[in-house]
Task: structure prediction
Amino acid sequence: MANLTNGFGLDSVQPVKSNDRTMNLFSTFSLWLGANVVVTTVLTGMFLVPDLTFLQAMFIILVGSLLGAIPLILTGNIGTRTGLPTMILTRGAFGHYGAVLPSAVNMLILIGWTWIQAYMAGLSLNHAVEFMTGYSNVNLFTILTEIAVVAITIYGHRGIEKMENIIASSMLVLSVIVFGYMFITFDVGNLITMAASKEPAITAMIGFDIVVATAFSWMPTVCDFNRYCSNEKTGMLGTYFGYVLATVVAMGLGATVSGFSIMNNMEQTYDPTVLIGQFNPILGFVAAIVIFFSVLSTNVMALYSAVMSYLVLAPKHRFWIPAIILGIISIIGALLKDWLMDHFFDFVLMIATLFIPVIAVMLVDYYIIKKEKYDPEEIIEGARKQYWYHGGINVKAYLAYIIGAIFAYFFTYKVPLATGSTIITFFVTASVYYLFMKIGKDISVSDSSGHVSEG
Result:
């Protein structure tokens, strides 16, 4: 057994040492490119058309991606500077024990993501196999997909890094082929001039908000990977351009496929294999392979981050053990395929409600309150109780979080704002936390020398 596990990942919540920081600019770019050229991002682009015109949708995708990537790289940069994963970094703002709740919730949400994406990858693999052999079994291929995800994840970040370098480049090439075929086969002019829906469910502002929210969905995991970047410049540039390019390509593909589906009197679909396969089965097969590998790579990242969140709760456990256990849970949950797809959009909104306030608190705490200074060893060990607050919990952070979450819930589900709630929730929570931390003194926060400081 020992020989079998010797090559498994030894990843932990401990700060990454400089000689273990193996991600250069290309590998960072590849990681975030591969993470977002994925069918769930394609699905988001599909929602925008025909409520918006194609050109409106593409403009919103571009601008929303460019702006949404800014808080993403700022969050990831904390991981690069400290060498720590995202959820344990929440100890800096929420307290040593206060980080338990966001870590547990993040783990559960990421498991939910693995369920959805395993099913989508299973669909694509099933399409490819059915094209080659005539055999169809979505449940089997969903299970096989998630087994592959677990097999890659147990080798830790090095396995993910090697996989993404290969997959990202391949996906870009295949995506260009898919795009090229659609634009040659179908009338692009009609797509551009296609009228928007007369009764749109998604306005331009809400569409913009959804695109920005996609970036926020990655923020609870970004430090898990960017702590392996060789330096800050590499991490920020690679993440920014990899994420933006991937989001524009994937959401643009979704908007394009959706528009062409409607124009050709087909069922509106996010899946290019359905559209292309009816006109050219071979390229439909290629599209299926693109989607399969993109979802596989993203699902590996989701399971990896779920394990890192688990290790915040139980840091002494070996990495590969929870990777296998959570992987088994992912395999079982992925078989809830019909329920998952029926509740996909609600799931995305739930993530926004739960985690935008967490990220807002975290960014304000690090960049403004703590003036870009976290002590990584103290965050891990807590020997001097520098991030102890009141009994290990920062009540002010939790109050700001609750206010932000209630605001997001109310203006998302009860009284939806015409502008969407993502950006406003972020700034409301950030402002509330800043004011709470600046009012009065927090006698339980000490600096590195043990002296009491204001907070």
